[in-house]
Amino acid sequence: MVNPTGALRIAAVLFPQFTSLDVFGPLGAMNSLSLRFPMSISVLSHNMDPVSIDRNIINGVSVGDRANTASPYFTEYVLPTHTFDNAPEFDVLFVPGGSGTRNNTATQPAVDWMTRVLGDSEEDWPQYVLSVCTGAALLARTGKFGGKNATTNKAAFNWVRSVQGAEDINWIARARWVVDGKLWSSSGVSAGTDMTLGWIEHLHGRNQSETMRVMMEWNKLEQEDDPFADYYGLRDDRPSCGKI
């Protein structure tokens, strides 16, 4: 995708019941970065309605698996800037996770759109594809990531590996985040911010990433720092998680 502006263009994909920290942790780092470097962001959904966090609330009604929880309406909303039909061009595709990734019907518009824009090969992808947590399941469903190394939320690791298209991906169990070419994927929730800070280091060097980290008062974890793989009893024999 040709970028005539010089600004790094981010496209964030949202869907009902995404996890807030999956998005707001990485975007907090990106917002700080944008004060120093030219960047733009588009927030995409299937329509322009507010997107609910951790719950699926449609026309004021809580539906789905969390409708009968203690607080079915305790939620935040995010306003999209564009729909999938009128999304502007972008250099970075950002895909969060959350319990909503298990709803194939609600997430199918996002999967269909990503399938179209990712083209036929990695050469057709944007400069970077970033996934957080179970957002990797949506990428897997596009069928575009066969042969790639990736990771995901360790509590949902086996479920993500079971979705359509996931069988062709090399899933790394023990990794805070994994880099394979243009694809950057992280473990669960807070790991997305560690990955984003690593990505910032890749783009602009350690001094810039450390500046962002200190501004955020974020305790640093490296790619190999993954206590949750042990917590959930996950093992693999692969020696590398694609170190940057």
UniProtKB/TrEMBL annotation:
Domain DJ-1/PfpI: 10-200
Name listed for the protein in its UniProt record: DJ-1/PfpI domain-containing protein
Top-level taxon of origin: Eukaryota
InterPro entries on file: Class_I_gatase-like, DJ-1/PfpI, INH-QAR
The species this protein was found in: Stachybotrys chlorohalonatus (strain IBT 40285)
Lineage: Eukaryota, Fungi, Dikarya, Ascomycota, Pezizomycotina
CDD domains according to UniProt: GATase1_PfpI_2
SUPFAM superfamilies: Class I glutamine amidotransferase-like
